[in-house]
């Protein structure tokens, strides 16, 4: 896999560009990048604290030594199945222990998990299979009323590279599907790695971006950069071996995985508790039962959590930190968190591409409630630029550009995106409009990228528009964001139709049949006579957004 520079710096591979050698050397000299790979973590912690609890899923508990034992057995079985170093594996599992165990087993093998979200459907998964040429696909049998097995069977038929489907639960008698339980076979023979060991600069995982260009983009993350991401976040959150992290949002999401999330907690020797659902009833019960010290949610969940905790029925005294991020948290809502929940609020502004901003636990209240934090690493470089690309003074709004020790230098197998998404000197164009305070704190005020942030779930307008145009009744379509009291933003489809205008329900089922994740269906549909155009003849999305806001988007 990969080419290595003279200093052992990851120069990337033909599939993805790495960091320039001098930057890599700097990150290593500063101690940000260390000689560590994720596959070793369970064994290291099992040696240091064998009896400490690492993982809790309902009534099932793993000490670090039990975690290590299961990861090793899974690793051997995956090897026996034929999985090898560098192989990509699409992992689409909900918040269950199997995700964590399988993830570390893949790491030990040097295989690369591709982090699909539970809500993704045929369209998204087929795209991932095509780009990554994954050899395996891990699914639950059913989750949230969806049966993943027919999806996996269809996919296997269309993608010959996909040799194995691993099912957590019931295979439904389908031949060729591998039941997860059979991989926990202690008889599986030990693995003698045929080649050099997995290296810190190797590709460790592929995350998905919200996407702004029609198809979800894949983000290459290496062991050393992702481990640093988790460690730097854990430091700001002051995690230690006594920390108990509750995973509420999907485990595959970068926020839950490593900001500091599951990885930051396990690196610190703490305990990870998995919540099977984000509902406040379930989560608050787990906080009380497991004495959770830190958890992470998105803004739409906040009002529900506040309401659920107001009656004081639950003892939440263990909870020290509530992280809120993935979409803009309204300042007023932010102010209600500490008095109601009795814990510190931490705002989190992150992205799968890298840069992570957190408010500090000892930042003044006003900063915590009105900004989205500061970059977690002293090596993060941040520029706020105006339309002409030159830096604007602090306090002024501009686009956020960034580069640093855990921010990508290019997407996976997409060299064509280099020019549009990166500057010549390697800064990633986030597409976010921010204002920077003299203290370095960033406040997110909007976005230049064509993305709708539906309460933290990112929707790529172009992708959905392409599907809408496939509807026989729609001549022209444009998807824009409109303000929404609960989600922050919802999606409004403006359509030009010669005949009857399809309603939201019809479009939702039309898009579902095309294999699109349900959260991408427009929340509202508005018919218009013709699309407003900009002077250069493009759809005038600003005019449509204004219209959606004024008319409340209703047709
Ligand atoms: C997180 O990651 P992604 O990749 O799903 O989305 C990134 C985008 C950002 O570029 C920004 O547009 C938006 O989501 N965003 C926020 C925000 N946090 C993310 N916008 C306003 N305020 C915030 N606090 O969403 C993500 C990754 C790691 C940690 C947390 C969130």
TrEMBL record:
- Tell me which stretches of the chain form a coiled coil: none
Residue segments, region Disordered:
1-23, 536-555
Biased-composition ranges, Basic and acidic residues, are 538-555
Query: Looking at the record's lineage, which domain of life comes first?
Result: Bacteria
Q: Which Pfam families match?
A: AMP-binding, AMP-binding_C
Residue span, AMP-dependent synthetase/ligase domain? 44-412
Q: Which residues form the AMP-binding enzyme C-terminal domain?
A: 463-538
Official protein name in the record: AMP-binding protein
Q: Lineage of this protein's species?
A: Bacteria, Bacillati, Actinomycetota, Actinomycetes, Kitasatosporales
